[in-house]
Amino acid sequence: MQKNLDLRLEKSFVIAGKYQLGILFDVFNVFNEAVVTSWGTRIGYDWSMTGAASTDGHDLYGLNLPRRARIGIRLMF
Length: 77
Hints:
With about 80 residues, this protein is mainly beta. The chain has one domain (about 5-75). It has strands spanning about 5-15, 20-30, 35-40, 60-65, 70-75. It has a three-stranded antiparallel beta sheet, with no helix packed on it. The protein has a two-stranded antiparallel ribbon with strand order 3-4.
């Protein structure tokens, strides 16, 4: 189960009666959750010294990115 929240704030202004200029502020991964995006089994490492199968033979391949912010502009014509 994951908690992932992305937010966007935008303010638009009318320019010259026909154009719109938007100022954007985005925040990604607001809760800063480290969610596993991919994992797998390491081939050849799923064993212990006794020869019994190991339950911890999984390798972490990817996490989502940490909290980050972005500022941008948008011109609509």
